């Protein structure tokens, strides 16, 4: 449940900040009349994300066991790739996100109402689709009934409240530090989802080694115990993983976490000075 709460909180807060920036810029530039098209684009993006999540849930329920495992494993790997790209993208562009969005909004205002709807739709829709996919795969990994969904909804609700507080100026936190540490926790969650996806593909007979276990501590940490449920809900922990699951988990987590936590190299400032004696261009 906590893992899905974290996913909903981080992804929802990204979308909330995007909406806050767009709304604040329209109000500040005297374009308040353009708020309805902006909210229309946001509403379409949210509706599409919910429809995508419902399609994943109800569409997969009609498949055979092997097909469902193959689909779940494939989507788990895809969602891990998307989330990994997302956390690195936010780490790289968080400082310039506001100016980039304002530039896109200026271009949309120059074109017309339809362009404004499309701009707000794409600004929010990407986070929405990523959130739906990753929440679905993470919920499948925990197999904990409706509680993963409740956790995700609580995270999304919290992100909406935080976004509103940011817009009103009632809340100020170090967003760079927030996204850094939540991103690191998401990498851990993604590693568990990736291992679960590998297990799904093994059960679908698309990968070998289903019965070659790396270890089995089910008697020490029973999956149905409160601490076993907690570990599975937070880290997608499995007490009896296969050898391939452990290898893939380590090969993903170690380098990705290392690169993510490594300090960013400062970008050199452009040299605008003309060399001595060189003719000015």
How would you describe this protein?
Helix 1 packs across helix 4, helix 1 packs parallel to helix 6 and helix 3 (65-93) packs antiparallel against helix 7 (175-203). By secondary structure, this protein is an all-alpha fold. The longest helix has 30 residues, at 113-142. Mean pLDDT is 78; it is low at 269-281. It is built from nine helices and no strands. The protein is elongated. It has helices at residues 2-28, 35-60, 65-93, 97-111, 113-142, 147-168, 175-203, 226-235, 243-261. It comes from Streptomyces cinnamoneus (Streptoverticillium cinnamoneum). This is Iron transporter. Its main location: membrane.
Characteristics:
9 helices; FTR1/Fip1/EfeU; 281 residues; membrane; elongated; 0% strand; disordered C terminus; mainly alpha
Q: What are the segments in which pLDDT stays under 50 over at least 5 consecutive residues?
A: 269-281
Shape summary:
elongated
Rounded to the nearest angstrom, the radius of gyration is: 22 Å
Beta-strand content bin: under 5%
Distance linking N and C termini: 61 Å
Output the helix-strand order: HHHHHHHHH
Structural class comes to: mainly alpha
* Count, helices: 9
Overall average pLDDT = 78
Major sheet summary line: none
Helix fraction by DSSP (H/I, runs of at least 4): over 70%
Total strands: the figure is 0
């Amino acid at each position: 449940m906590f893992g899905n709460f974290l996913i909903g909180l981080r992804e929802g807060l990204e979308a909330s900040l995007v909406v806050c920036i767009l709304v604040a810029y329209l109000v500040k530039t005297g374009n308040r009349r353009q708020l309805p098209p902006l909210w229309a684009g946001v509403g379409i993006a949210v509706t599409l994300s919910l429809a995508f999540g419902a399609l994943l849930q109800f569409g997969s329920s009609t498949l055979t066991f092997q097909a469902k495992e193959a689909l779940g494993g494939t989507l788990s790997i895809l969602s891990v790739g998307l989330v990994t790209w997302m956390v690195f993208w936010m780490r790289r562009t968080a400082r310039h996100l506001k100016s980039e969005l304002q530039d896109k909004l200026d271009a949309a205002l120059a074109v017309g109402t339809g362009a404004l709807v499309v701009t707000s739709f794409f600004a929010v829709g990407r986070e929405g689709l990523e959130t739906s996919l990753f929440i679905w795969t993470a919920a499948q990994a925990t197999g904990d009934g409706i509680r993963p969904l409740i956790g995700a909804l609580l995270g999304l609700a919290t992100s909406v409240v935080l976004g509103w507080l940011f817009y009103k100026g009632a809340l100020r936190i170090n967003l760079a530090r927030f996204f850094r540490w939540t991103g690191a926790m998401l990498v851990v969650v993604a590693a568990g989802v990736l291992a679960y996806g590998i297990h799904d593909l093994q059960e679908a007979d698309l990968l070998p080694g289903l019965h070659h276990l790396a270890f089995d501590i089910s008697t020490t940490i029973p999956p149905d115990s409160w601490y076993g449920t907690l570990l599975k809900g937070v880290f997608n922990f499995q007490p009896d993983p296969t050898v391939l699951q452990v290898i893939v988990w380590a090969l993903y987590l170690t380098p990705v976490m290392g690169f993510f936590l490594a300090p960013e190299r400062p970008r050199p400032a452009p040299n605008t000075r003309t060399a001595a004696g060189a003719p000015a261009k």
